[in-house]
Protein 1
Amino acid sequence: MHEASIAQNVIESVLRLIADGTVQGKVARVYLKVGKLTAVVPDNLQFMFGVLAEEGPLAGVKLEIEEVPIRVRCKACEEAFEMHEEIRLICPKCGSADTRFETGRELLIDAVEVD
């Protein structure tokens, strides 16, 4: 379960933001953007964050996760499309396989909310 190491990295990152003065005050929420291509299970990540944070300065902090869809752009015709259940890299407009991912690989702290 890679969610445990991700949760630990989020905790360490927020603690660094507190230590360097970027974040001041009591942290209430941490907002993450997590792309569907990362294979992160949001419920597992929230659970692991809660378990790992419960004994430290981030005890009680809520982790809010925004899942970012997989968005692909065709290099041939510039059509943009989202993938949902199956990964299909063929452009629905022109049929080209020359595509690139635009979103879906994100794994970042978007914001930290303080009281």
Note: Residues 74 and 99 are 4 Å apart (CA to CA).
Protein 2
Amino acid sequence: MTALATQDNIKLYESLVLKGDLSGLQPQEKAQYYQSLCERLGLDATTQPFSFLKLNGKEVLYASKGATDQLARVHGVNRTIIEEKEMRGVYVVTVEASLPNGRREQEKGAVTIENLKGDAFCNALMKAITKAKRRATLAILGLGLLDETELET
């Protein structure tokens, strides 16, 4: 391996690990990284548990609802809705996630529901639940994966 190749690998590793930016990877490398991450986490890659997203100039992986549902199953995470409330046009759901060892984490999911009706209102309620469950799952497992608060909601 040449010094240049080693230097390029170090820069790539730095970009990936320290900055969380996947944009420096070639398509084949992205596929390998995706597969390896799924294997490490016990996820079925064929169900597409992650999406590649551009965010703040970086390409990142976003764990979908499918990813967190699989993670909950694989790691025995129990998720319970402990509170649902409306505050000033915002619907807030609090979920508690727990592990068999007794560890617990609580997270919230919130969406604007002001002026929503019909299906849009129903979808917003479900979205708040999904957000809370997803956040609680990632929190209890200590995974530093992209959180929807970093996306447009």
Note: The two ends are 45 Å apart (CA to CA).
